[in-house]
Amino acid sequence: METTTDLTTEQIARAFSGHRFDLALQHLADDVIWTSVGGGPLVGRKAVAKAIERTAADLADVTTEFQRFRSVVGEESVVVDSLARYTDTDGGVSIVASCDVFDFAADGRITEIVSYMIELPN
Hints:
- Helices cover 24% and strands 47% of the residues.
- By secondary structure, the protein is an alpha+beta fold.
């Protein structure tokens, strides 16, 4: 799959971490690996795409407010650190701190994602 885009690696990483999966999906390498620390890795574009679809469905009726959203860019990696407040339709609130580390190939595709997440007390 050929990718033509004017997005930088930082913009791609921020789209993924900001739940704008439609922008990020096309930038996954076929053999991408996504590891949520504490869980097993997802291997391959199809497995990651399926997880993204589930996450998007879970967030469809949730209001997300990022209280912190910052990125650090390296030569082949981008790190996105965030703190988000999620409010469901019943008014339930979750505060989640997360950090996603993205590695990119020379063609701008994501080759690996390592995600750290923890739910904080309200």
